[in-house]
Amino acid sequence: MPLRHPAPVLLAAAALLLAPSLALGTLPSHSSMHNLTWAAQFSEQFRASIVYPRWLADSFNGLGAPTFYFYSPIAFWVDALLTVATFNAFSVSYRLSLSWLLLLWTSGMAMHAWLKTEAASPRVALYGALAYMAAPYHLLDHYYRGAYAEFAAYVVLPLVALAVRQIADGRRFGVALLALSYAALPMAHLPTALLISVTVLPMHVLYRGWRLAETRRSVGFFARCALGGALGLGLTAIYLLPALTLQDWIPAETFWAAYYQPQNWFLLTPERWPLPVEMMQIIGWVAAAYFLAAIAVVAVVAHGGALQERPSEAAFWASVCIVCSLLVAGAVPWFWQVPLIAKVQFPWRLMIVVEFAAITAICLVPLQARSRATSLVLVAAIVALACGAINMAQGVVTRSRLALRQQEIPRELGQFVPVGFPHRLSAGFAEPDLAPLKDAPTISCAPVAAVCRAESERFGSMRIEVDGDRPTTVILRRFYFPAWQLDPRLPLTATDPYRLISFTAPTGSHVYHLRRTSLPEERVGWMVSALSASLLLVWTAVAWRGINFARHKVLDRGYR
């Protein structure tokens, strides 16, 4: 049964790996407080038929935040769908634990689908999928970092690799799978998508093109991969276009302040690590383990003396693991100074590729060809991996005890206040100073008007009444963002320095409605995504028709 039906086996393994969170709810982690408040608001708007919530009205104590104009949404869509499927029966803390479970399980299913095309047997594919789910950095993303969005990228990476393989094998729907999976990458986690796009993805495409060993086939393969990638970028325009073009409205530079600079996190420079160093020590042990395992795989292939398909594949993925491990370690520091790559914050985000490549290589290597020396290297890798796993297990126990004593308090990310809002330096990164707005009124009018009243509506909207015998400056307790619009139309501005919405009401009695509207960047993004989806459907229909035509041709020949 496990080999024919891996889904229940992988689900049981996912439940076991996340048992502390399933029992206690969301455990304390670096980002757990953000996940709680974002998931609560995102799912509430989703249940209210807002398919793509972007503005979180309850953030910053009701001032609001444009969080999902910039933050990748896929993981939170999973949580929103789960709250619909469960009729919102669970608390946010426990529901998020179930969402983590779904992501871990589907990552195992995706890895199994990938390894079925690569590994020597279904049993090896199952073992590889289990190893991928239980990989230390994969679980560290959950238990230590609380990196919910990055966790979703583990589902997508095997599908991207599978799509490239299918295109190389001449599968007609390979382009469609590449387009869909590559679109999902940035919508799962943008920094991880960037790192995958400049490391393992081009390496894999070049390797597959080289393996075709025929110029015409290779050129066609590269063209289809380029088409799938372009359609994928087009599909993700609904997220990517606003996220990249609206950054002038938030203090985006604080995402890359001193604390977040990659050179602070190189494994080869532990003297720079910010305190506490426990997590970095775990990543160091794990990276060393995979590096040693990859070297052992290369040695096994070399010892075998053959470069048939499977050993060659193992050597390729081991090489990917070695290269990416060196990048994580900081052995090639200039790589992290390249524009855009310098903005991924943490080099160890690339550990997702290291783990994927190492597990794939181990599943493909012909272990019967190993020598005594390579066996010793593998033993050293297992020891290093065990050290990292033991350290992480101790941290999980600590966090479980903390969860029993206190509940996590939802908290916001300071980078999503309006640009120009006062910040203070805290632990090496910027934090907004919200204290002056703690008791700010919902509405204020200057000069004082006979009527100056505001009624809050759903998701940050307002109904405003102003009656004055002269023009009045109105200030609302809402953070300014260009998506806000007043009806009837009046120009909106931001107060200085706290960036609240302000407008000037003319003389007389007036009723206004403050509502969020879609920005031009959003509308263009939707149009680009719709066009890309249409082109993808046309390509898929043509491919499907080609399959049916080939089948009919075969049948006709049979009848003759």
Report on this model:
It is a single chain. The protein is built from 20 helices and 10 strands. The protein has 560 residues and is α+β, with helices and mostly antiparallel strands. It folds into 4 domains: 1-146, no CATH class; 148-250 and 520-560; 252-408, no CATH class; 440-516. The strands form 3 sheets. The protein has a 4-stranded antiparallel β-sheet, with no helix packed on it. A 4-stranded antiparallel β-sheet has the order 4-5-10-7, with no helix packed on it. A two-stranded antiparallel sheet has the order 1-2. Helix 1 (6-17) crosses helix 7, helix 11 (174-188) packs across helix 12 (190-198) and helix 11 packs across helix 14. It starts with 5 loop residues before the first helix and ends with a helix.
Write a concise synopsis of the structure shown.
With 560 residues, the chain is of the alpha+beta class. It has helices at 6-17, 19-24, 32-47, 59-62, 67-70, 74-85, 92-118, 122-134, 136-145, 148-168, 174-188, 190-198, 200-212, 215-235, 237-245, 278-304, 309-329, 351-364, 372-405, 520-559; strands at 423-426, 429-432, 443-446, 451-456, 462-468, 472-479, 484-487, 493-494, 500-505, 508-516.
Topology, please?
Elements: H1 6-17, H2 19-24, H3 32-47, H4 59-62, H5 67-70, H6 74-85, H7 92-118, H8 122-134, H9 136-145, H10 148-168, H11 174-188, H12 190-198, H13 200-212, H14 215-235, H15 237-245, H16 278-304, H17 309-329, H18 351-364, H19 372-405, E1 423-426, E2 429-432, E3 443-446, E4 451-456, E5 462-468, E6 472-479, E7 484-487, E8 493-494, E9 500-505, E10 508-516, H20 520-559
Helix pairs in contact: 1-7, 1-8, 3-6, 6-7, 7-8, 7-10, 8-18, 9-10, 9-16, 9-19, 10-11, 10-13, 11-12, 11-14, 12-13, 13-14, 14-20, 15-20, 16-17, 16-18, 16-19, 17-18
